[in-house]
Amino acid sequence: QVNSKQGGSPCKEKHVVLLSPVGKIEISGCETGLHEIKLPKMSVLPSGAESSCEVCEGAEEMTEPLQQCTAWLRAYFCEPATTGTLPLPAFHHPLLQRDSFTRQVLWTLLNDVKFGEAVSYKQLADLAGNSRAARAVGGAMRSNPLPIIIPCHRVIRSSGDTGHYGGGHLLKEWLLCHEKQQKEKLAR
């Protein structure tokens, strides 16, 4: 349960489940904005047969931020070239409300690391204004409440190794590969 800023009254949180090419993605939010995106834990890569993106639970009570989020995720998986033209949903997670290095890192990642790009923890620390904070960047990635939209999967180790990911190693590799393939398609 997330408290809103005005007087701490709890939000009326709504939930929606999006069936995606990587499995069921759980999204929660209120009228004000998104609270959290929960990715499926994957032990096997999806076969790719499931290429559509449909809301399978909660469609009847979607708030505007949830509608924007599902539209954005659907575009990300099915028509990535269009994500830049879609509005990003408002965020309403406490971590993204208060001023902190974590918030700075997440906003920097969202704004500066584009589709199909990857950045090291150290490079992201530099971009966020503290070149010695690569480990803190790792902590910020672990606490990211809105994966895929705030693309923490694009942050890799300096060695080129993908590193850890909340959705698991396979999902991170799948997302990076998806973006690379889509970017190559657009370049042709």
TrEMBL record:
Q: Give EC number(s), comma-separated.
A: 2.1.1.63
- The broad enzyme category this protein falls into is transferase
- GO biological process: what's one of them? DNA repair
Origin superkingdom:
Eukaryota
The record's listing under InterPro entries reads: MethylDNA_cys_MeTrfase_AS, MethylDNA_cys_MeTrfase_DNA-bd, MethylDNA_cys_MeTrfase_DNAb, MethylG_MeTrfase_N, MGMT_N_sf, WH-like_DNA-bd_sf
Give start-end ranges for the coiled-coil region(s).
Answer: none
Asked whether the keyword Amino-acid biosynthesis is assigned, the reply is no
The leader peptide range reads none
Q: Which is an annotated Pfam family here?
A: DNA_binding_1
Annotated Gene Ontology cellular components are: nucleoplasm
Residues annotated as domain Methylguanine DNA methyltransferase ribonuclease-like: 19-89
Q: Which cofactor does it need?
A: Zn(2+)
List the subcellular locations: Nucleus
Per UniProt, the keywords (alphabetical) are: DNA damage, DNA repair, DNA-binding, Metal-binding, Methyltransferase, Nucleus, Phosphoprotein, Transferase, Zinc
**Family named by the database record:** Belongs to the MGMT family.
Q: What is this protein called?
A: Methylated-DNA--protein-cysteine methyltransferase
